[in-house]
Amino acid sequence: MGTIESEIDVDVPISVAYNQWTQFEEFPRFMDGVESIRQIDETHTHWKVKVAGVEREFDATITEQIPDTRIAWKSVDEPRHAGVVDFHRLNDAETHVSVKMDWEPEGFVEKVGQILQMDDIQVGRDLKKFKELIESQGFETGAWRGEVDRDPDATGR
Description:
By secondary structure, this protein is an alpha+beta fold. The protein has a domain at 2-24 and 61-137: START domain (Alpha-D-Glucose-1,6-Bisphosphate, Chain A, domain 4, 2-Layer Sandwich). 24% of the residues lie in helices and 41% in strands. The chain has helices spanning 14-21, 107-115, 118-137; strands spanning 2-10, 34-41, 44-51, 54-66, 70-75, 81-91, 94-103. The longest helix has 20 residues, at 118-137.
């Protein structure tokens, strides 16, 4: 299992950064490789991704969601992964966003990419694109302020 960690400061209030991150269907705007995400219900999403020519589809469950604080998830089946995004208020106009993901690479290309830390580099690039998107807009495209209690079966989160 590989671990990816990245963080960035964004020049928007915490509620704006958090609210935008709850708009999962907007992820393709700033995440390379994410072709689409469909929100099935409040806690379930279906992802279509294409990384280094490898296409995958999977479902994920939101395992914890606390407004302006945290969003955590885990995959339902293969490929296995889980992650958390934490939001920390720096001041009224700045937010620190940190991402930690655990994932199990499948196949030669993904394993080589992990060894070369290409996954870390990509997540860092995606966070920079999130920063550019949210700062250029100055507002979120939507919000979901509901809470999801921590899943006691969520490993490592």
